[in-house]
Design goal:
Layout: H1 2-29, H2 35-57, H3 60-75, H4 77-86, H5 102-152
Helix pairs in contact: 2-3, 2-5, 3-5
Length: about 150
């Protein structure tokens, strides 16, 4: 039994190493100077800036819209990957779009997922602060009411 568990662990480590190598191969072999990749990078930086701006300005409507748009982009990623694989010559010098979707996952979906998680964290923080403010007001009101009762007595 211990031999089997050790073998499973070794296989998991080998798979992890293979995935890690594949990840870095995609990152290093990508020609980041292509104009469409610069546009994708700019898009992700812009979305990240909007996440920060929406959090600081409490723009819930805009943040909700961007969040839903990012989710829609992630939902249609497989279709976009297939479409891009068929027509890559129109916008790219290399064929990056494989059938597994590794490239689109790393370049598009991972940053979108991170931005969505940041939106959720922002909303949770804002909810936490709102609940704390409401509780403080309730305490002040109850203290004022009890102080008013003591004056009457």
């Amino acid at each position: 039994k211990q031999w089997y568990q050790r073998r499973v662990r070794d296989m998991e480590v080998e798979q992890y190493e293979a995935h890690r190598k594949l990840f870095w191969d995609v990152i290093y072999k990508t020609d980041w100077s292509e104009s469409w990749l610069v546009a994708v990078e700019t898009f992700h930086v812009l979305i990240f800036c909007l996440v920060i701006l929406c959090h600081r300005a409490s723009w819930h409507g805009l943040s909700g819209f961007i969040f839903m748009a990012l989710l829609a982009l992630m939902y249609f990623a497989q279709y976009l990957n297939t479409l891009a694989a068929e027509r890559y010559a129109l916008f790219s010098r290399e064929q990056y779009f494989d059938s597994d979707g590794l490239f689109i996952t790393l370049i598009v979906l991972l940053p979108c997922t991170i931005n969505c998680i940041l939106f959720i964290i922002s909303w949770l923080l804002q909810s936490w602060n709102l609940m704390a403010d409401i509780k403080c007001r309730q305490i002040r009101i109850s203290q004022a009411a009890s102080a008013g009762d003591k004056k009457r007595d």
